Amino acid sequence: MILDRILEHKKAELRHKQSRGYLSELKGRIRDVSGTLGFAVALDATRSASSPALIAEVKRASPSLGLLRPEFEERFDPVEIARSYAQHGASAVSVLTDGDFFRGSLDYLLAVKQAVALPALNKEFMVEDIQFYEARAYGADAVLLIVAALERRQLEDFYALARDLTLDVLFETHHERELDLVLERIPDARLIGINNRDLKTFSTDLGVTVRLAKRIPADKLIVSESGIHKRADVERLLEAGVHAMLVGESLIKAEVVGAKIAELRGADADPDARRKES
Q1: Do residues 118 and 86 make contact, with C-beta atoms less than 8 angstroms apart?
Q2: 3-state secondary structure of 117
Q3: Which of 39, 85, 86, 212 would be a feasible disulfide site paired with 119, CB 3.0-4.6 Å?
Q4: Can you state the percent helix, strand and coil of the chain, rounding each to 5?
């Protein structure tokens, strides 16, 4: 399974970072960065009856598709992408920082946070404590915890560490067992993500969100992830009670980002969007 390969590689990658010197360096950087923005608060404040809040993702590649826009690879600019998202109504940004499988970077996260005044999710495969200090030092406001990738005790400990660092946590679930684990073991979890992508086949099915959303208490914010490409998808998620949507591939591949965001949100496109992005 691709997730197992990624996790094995991630653990090997992190071994050389496990030093007191590096941790001290990160803690020093954390003291110098500004306070975190409320990721969950921003999503809750910007959702509406006609559209979930949009978490727009800076995503260069994926294991299944490779480079998402190979024709633009030489001028891939995470800052310009994030600025476009902010300009056209995104509530938050997600920045992939895994280098080997997604061609991301912590430097992308830092650059985006220095340029764009939106809360940011560090989209990463979190398997070691050091990654939470990295996330905070590079400007993240929230981190992702993939339930399928962690033992129960890790999930609890990582959540506590993230909160100590004032980071919001988005829990990513794929089926009922994972969802029930989060609801039982971390009752104050605020952000519950539902990934519509099958980790074995990498196919997507919005029915996963529709099914799992019914089990989530009303005091949680439901975030649907993956497979969201058109307005009809968004309307289906709204009917299921979703509060926010994380969209990457369809935005990166869009010829006009502003028009695609307007389509997904059910809003009139900026009449100058095509001119601005041409």
Answers
A1: yes
A2: coil
A3: 39
A4: 45, 15, 35
